[in-house]
Specification:
Blueprint lengths: L2 H10 L3 H5 L2 E8 L7 E2 L1 H14 L1 E14 L7 E13 L2 E11 L5 E9 L1 H17 L10
Parallel strand pairs: 1-6
Antiparallel strand pairs: 1-2, 3-4, 4-5, 5-6
Helix pairs in contact: 3-4
Amino acid sequence: MATADRFRAAVDARDLAALDDLFTDDVRFYSPVKFTPFEGKPMVLGLFGVLLRTFQDFRYVGDYTGTAQTSANTPADAPSAVLLFRATAGGRQIHGIDLLHFADDGRIKEFTVMVRPQSAVHALGEAVHAGLVADGLAPAPANH
């Protein structure tokens, strides 16, 4: 089974252990709400734990495969897959894509999420940040 198919199955099953086998140790996760990527398998798996709790009615609705340049400043194209999804978060309907870039061994080395509309991006960002703070993966906002 291809990595993208295994990834979809793990997300559908909410199986973090299965996701662990699919990421490289130095995986990068590019979020629609944070300029710099989340880096490294422990952080990315922690983020997925939050995402799997945050999204309601998450489902993949299509996929495309091919090649694309990664964001890691590498000039060569990498095998890639685009997974289209629909979900609800913070009461907002979300349409989005997951863009997966694969390492030579087939594991995911780069993961980019794009969502619309902007109101959903904002609601998702707030919900995910709260989850990261609750799980100790991000600092709590300072009270002034």
